[in-house]
Fold this protein.
Amino acid sequence: MSVETYLRPQDVRSVAVVGTGSIGASCAALFLAHGMDVVAHDPAPGAEARAREYVTHAWPALCSLGAAKSQSVPHERLRFVDTAAQAVLAADVVQENTPEKPELKATVMRELDASATPDKIILSTTGGIPPSTLQAVCKHPERVVVAHPFNPAHLIPLVEVVGGGETDRAVVEWAMGFARRVGKQPIRLHVEANGHMTNRLQFALVREAVACLVDGVASAEDIDAAVRYGLAPRWALMGALQTLHLAGGPGGMRGILDHAGAAIEEWWTPRAELRLTPEVKAQLVAAADEVCAGESIADWVRWRDDKLIDVIKLQQASEADHPRRP
């Protein structure tokens, strides 16, 4: 199909949010902030109450970032329906947010595909299932695309857009445009892979953090401090490749590779095989207690979301005057 087949991103007035866990509810808040109605479905007991509570808690942050224009939470524009099919029929675009269970996603995607007209795009927020797997159960796979946000989805700017083997190229472009409409920074992946790309980057670091814990290299608190105070400040401004390039001084990337290439190759070679055995899981649970100082997850999440606003504003300000200005 051509791009004219689909409703333009800027003309979307309502979104069907199927699955309202942490990602679904977070996205619902984001869509509401950008003036769209949300028609939601989640069969879990108490799902509506939890989603509304999440939106209420997310709203001050969305106001602070300028996404929401009113301090009043528009609960009247969020409604829940009894079935996924009802949500699909009532909205312009469909977003699937069910748990990362292939069998469950296949069942849901089959229902969404059967309920939506061929010109209605279906977005999936899956964090790692290749879109071609999702398309396999669809009669109209060309309109299925992954648009993977990051937790908390109403705050973190990144969205990974991944087309499957049968995704219409116009749908990939549409997903990029829709992400920009809701204030996101979308990136386009050229190939499919388990975990897409950003989770692969993230869990390469997590893997080595766990290895350092298991090997007794440092305490859990100091392992996290190494990331927080050594890596994160630069990474908030630049990606890993640009950071490495600047580390080479006047010689740039070639200079650092000529100077320290052999050492770098040793540093990035993973340690011996690492498995989540019961012993390792127990170490990680103890580590979580250590880094959170015994305080509740809810308290840390509130702190995280509040402070993320400052970090995102810093990123936005830094982009206004970096050397590569548009």
Remarks:
- The chain has two domains: 3-189, 198-294.
- The domain at 198-294 is CATH 1.10.1040.10 (N-(1-d-carboxylethyl)-l-norvaline Dehydrogenase; domain 2).
- The chain has a mean pLDDT of 94.
